[in-house]
Amino acid sequence: MAKLSIIYAYRNRDFERIKISLESLKNQTDTDFEVVFVDYGSTLDKANAVAQILNQFYFATYYYIAHPGLLWNKSKALNYGALKSDSSHIFVADVDICFATEAVSQIKKNISANTFTLFKLSYLKENAQLKPEYQLDVKLSDIKHHGTINGMIVVAKEDFLSIEGYDEIYHFYGSEDVDFYDRLSNKGLKKTFDHNTLFYHQWHPIQNRINDAKLLKNPKLFNIKKINLVHQLYQKNTNAITPLFKQDIKANIWCKDDELTQKDATLSFELVNDHANVWHCIKMILPNLKNEIVCIKVTKDIYFDSLKYKLKKTLNKPDRIPISMKTVNDLMLQEIVLCYRHHNYTYTISEDLNTIFFIIKL
Hints:
By secondary structure, this protein is of the alpha/beta class. 30% of the residues lie in helices and 22% in strands.
């Protein structure tokens, strides 16, 4: 029977759930598998800790790609994992999943030509948390509900690569998995579903409930979940097989040593949150620069809170028009997603949320 590669995509999650997931793989009835664990830009302290955990499991290989200055992109992480896979078939997992002892064996039973298979996932209640020394003893009362769209899929590596993998236009969270299934179906593969209870999801707060209308230290783009959904539906309705925005998943793999700092910049712009200047810099200057490492620093200007400015505004004679730092953030993130997602860049927001740095190699 075919060897299986289990791919995890990870960034800055807590360590206990990773160990629980990997512990559940130690007791599989079928041990002919490997784990390709892709850390997409965790902070160095978390990366070192996770690497030590992975070293405890003979079947797992840890890869650190990207760096903390890049936006979270699960598609890029999974595509890299597929390239590193040493198996004919790939199973996409998640750090929150625990495997029943017969899970690998059952996954392989679903392998057949021109087919991909999705799986049921049983979501555990908050009070049904497992311990690192993991013993699979899940009771029916521990399960909150079951889900059918959850990111888990087994597919031939050849088919994975033939549709250019996961679409890397998807950033943050949402729709990259369904889009992947749609494009496999559009290619002519048959979709099947395994209804066995094989996977248990460790409880955690729902990530996409974080308020993306508010500026946070961890970058978020307003309404990105819905934007991703609209793009997924567009590609489905146009019967896309490869992504609308062509990509080469073998290119543009950045590592922690590639992280850019202000010292690397060959050209710098220091701005305040004035609408005209920020918009001009991002939309008009940046696209016309080449062979530069550009640093754009935008700081919240206290002038816009001054009595002088408020008086000018009252008289309808403001000399400048401010934009919120959240609007600055969204403007920059839009450009990264659409235009610069394959570039090496560093994007950071200060702890006080008053300064944004965007450094990019053009």
